[in-house]
Specification:
Layout: H1 7-20, H2 25-32, H3 36-43, H4 51-60
Length: about 70
């Protein structure tokens, strides 16, 4: 499990998974039903990415989102 502190770290994880799968941005965007621009911005850590689409893309690459209470 990896702790993600910001949008940039999340984007880096998504990019790593996409590249490990051997997919181009164009192919990955088509598979997930999002635009290339959205996926590119997500991978670069754009902080205003839509959470629903972000979770959808994460699931495509086998990533899950967990929320944990601090403390």
């Amino acid at each position: 499990m990896t702790k993600v502190n910001d949008a940039v770290q999340l984007g880096q994880l998504i990019r790593q998974r996409r590249k490990a799968a051997g997919l181009t941005l164009k192919d990955a965007a088509a598979m997930s039903g999002v635009g290339v621009r959205f996926l590119s911005e997500l991978e670069r850590g754009k902080p205003t990415s839509q959470i629903g689409l972000t979770i959808h893309v994460m699931q495509l690459f086998g990533l899950e989102l967990f929320v944990e209470t601090r403390g």
